[in-house]
């Protein structure tokens, strides 16, 4: 099992998260929700019965990255 850090959690990446979680990987998502919403992550949870870790923020923000890791 790998720990995988996804830097977007919107529509397209949510499909990737589903596949990763169903393959037994641990997934963490960092997204600023500028063009997506937490609904995508809720759908991932509904499809996989697993909850990916989620950090809301911008990848350019050092404090957000410290929180994520």
From TrEMBL:
Catalytic activity: UDP-alpha-D-glucose = UDP-alpha-D-galactose
UniProt xrefs under InterPro entries: Epimerase_deHydtase, NAD(P)-bd_dom_sf
Originating organism: Acinetobacter terrae
Gene Ontology BP, a term: galactose metabolic process
Family membership: Belongs to the NAD(P)-dependent epimerase/dehydratase family.
Protein name, UniProt field: UDP-glucose 4-epimerase
Pfam families: Epimerase (PF01370)
Bilayer-crossing regions: none
Positions of the NAD-dependent epimerase/dehydratase domain: 14-69
Record's GO cellular component terms: cytosol
GO MF assignments: UDP-glucose 4-epimerase activity
């Amino acid at each position: 099992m790998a720990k995988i850090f996804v830097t977007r959690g919107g529509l397209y990446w949510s499909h990737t998260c589903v596949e990763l979680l169903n393959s037994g990987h641990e997934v963490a998502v960092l997204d600023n929700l500028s063009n997506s919403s937490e609904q995508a992550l809720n759908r991932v949870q509904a499809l996989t019965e697993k909850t990916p870790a989620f950090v809301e923020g911008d990848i350019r923000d050092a404090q957000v990255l410290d929180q994520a890791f």
